[in-house]
Design a protein that fits this description.
The chain contains 14 helices and eight strands. The protein is α/β, with parallel strands linked by helices. Helix 7 (216-237) crosses helix 12, helix 7 crosses helix 13 and helix 9 packs parallel to helix 10 (300-326). Mean pLDDT is 91; it is low at 71-81 and 443-447.
Amino acid sequence: MAADAGANDRRRGKSALFVLVCGCAGLGPHLLEPGLRLLPAIAMALFLGGYSFRTVLVPALSGRRPALAPTAAQGGGADSQPGPLPAVDVVVAARDEQAVIGQLVERIAALHYPSQQLRLWVVDDGSSDRTPQLLADLQARHGFLQVLRREPDAGGGKSGALNLALAQLRAPWMLVLDADADLQPDALERLIPLAEAGGWGAVQLRKAVANPEANWLTRAQAMEMVLDAVVQEGRLMRGGVVELRGNGELLRRASLLSAGGFNEATVTDDLDLSIRLLLDRQPVAIAWDPPVSEEAVLSLRALWRQRQRWAEGGLQRFFDYAPGLLSPRLGGRLKLDLASFFLLQYVLPVVAAADLLGAAITRTLPTIWPLSFVAFGLSGVSILVGCRRSSEGPPLPAMGPLNLAVGILYLGHWFLVIPWTTVRMALLPKRLVWAKTLHLGEDPATA
């Protein structure tokens, strides 16, 4: 308990230092002479814009795509699996998932994979709805379904549930899914041979929104997921870092164990594991097709709650693993990639907030806008290119001026979420709360 308190205090200290440095970076230019105020932002825009353009947009605009396996044709198929398919354990941490757990089990049952090589593990993580009863009925009908149960106060959140299952697994591959996940029937028989041939420690499936036309917010989230996949593909092709996304994680069990399993002291198990796999030199790839589909949240309130958790976990991993990330264990290319996207994802929003505060205090114009302009411009082009690609799974949003404008403006929510979360992390004691995203299944009216 004392060790946990010490770790939390260190995280608060690191968060406070991060806020202080970003605040000075945002306020400082307002103290310069008028002709010099834009120079820091212009310099960063040229550096980060140039790196992002080379890393993300050049491959995307040229149509180049990363190959997951040296000898596999795009899309896989029978020619890419010369030997028998290895065993796979599909693992789902489920808490109060009565709306979707039944259809998930049926989707796994429909996968085109040797039945003797496939097993589904569902960890009932202290559910208080009908999830336990539904799982008991499903287990009686499906021999491949294994159910583990945890008490509501077991601790560790989703990571604790996954670690409980991990201790039982023996298959060489583990596929982590959310309870609302939807896979194409041939997803595993295509992906496993590519992952084995490429020697990957993990492969993240592109996340697609299952309900993109529910409202403007779900449509915007669909564009955001496209942006994320385009960026990750570019980073992979340039020797950068690919991050896991929680749902649709295909993990080599040996690589996962080598990295220490799932961290129960974080609110984002996927982002934390991405860094530990990186430091353990376990390569991670991303697959555009086949995707994994999931429900997007339907309201701004749910989005705000979800994104605060993502922001906190994203920052926490950099604070926790900074010594390793700065050490000689990582080469210069990886460090440049991590630094560039850390600046764009986390530093820029906090500096922009401080810049607006400085503009209000000094009654001068904002100074960070050149960098913000580059960031939004690159994001918009990536959305445009990605949504016009051929893709499997749910249809991607049509790319007209209105949809593209909605997608770009929607990304501005990070300029609220990141500063708010960072300041909260710096001021308030850390409480590990794993907030659950509500899954509605085929009945969105229950929202």
